[in-house]
Amino acid sequence: MLGFDIFIYIAIGLIVVFFLLGLQSQKGKANGLKEGRLAPSGNKPNCAASESVENENHNVAPLFATFWQAKDAVLATGGTITAETDDYLSATYMSKIFKFVDDVELRDAGEGVVHIRSASRVGYSDRGENRKRVECIRAALKTI
């Protein structure tokens, strides 16, 4: 029975850690534009980006749509707009259980090209969630 008790304590500890990380992620904000471009993707595997990619594993294709269509796709997939200009948009997505916040940013490159960056605010790995989110936004564009 002692082994089961240790398992319960470890499980409760992990739940508390994830809950605290979720709270921490709610205090951040999107990176914004850096010299007119989306922020670099960084080295952690919790980002997917079409611009300023530092690691090839983070690379995704840009969106081929108007900026306003891309905005509608973000809203259709559950994003909440946090900042917007004529050529830049940031939105957040929140996970259901631990309330982790991820940022999605769009930059209008003109001529039907919209660069996208989706990244977790905390943690190291996202198990591919940001890449999946970009693909969900891309799929939503087909219905708009």
Keywords:
6-stranded antiparallel beta sheet, 144 residues, two-stranded antiparallel sheet, TATA-Binding Protein, 3 helices, alpha+beta, single chain
Describe this entry's structure for a reader.
The chain has 144 residues and is α+β, with helices and mostly antiparallel strands. It has one domain (2-141): 2-Layer Sandwich (TATA-Binding Protein), CATH 3.30.310. Helices cover 33% and strands 27% of the residues. It contains 3 helices and 8 strands. It has helices at 2-25, 67-76, 129-141; strands at residues 33-34, 37-38, 47-49, 63-64, 80-84, 88-94, 101-110, 113-120. Strands 3, 4, 5, 6, 7 and 8 form a 6-stranded antiparallel β-sheet that branches. The chain has a two-stranded antiparallel sheet with strand order 1-2. Strand 1 and strand 2 form a beta hairpin. It is elongated and about 65 Å long. The mean pLDDT is 86.
Q: Whole-number radius of gyration?
A: 17 Å
CATH class: Alpha Beta
Instruction: Using the alpha-carbon principal axes, give the shape.
Output: elongated
Percent range for helical residues? 25-40%
Structural class based on helices, strands and sheet pairing: alpha+beta
And the CATH topology?
TATA-Binding Protein
- Beta fraction of the residues? 25-35%
Q: What order do the helices and strands follow?
A: HEEEEHEEEEH
State the domain count. Answer: 1
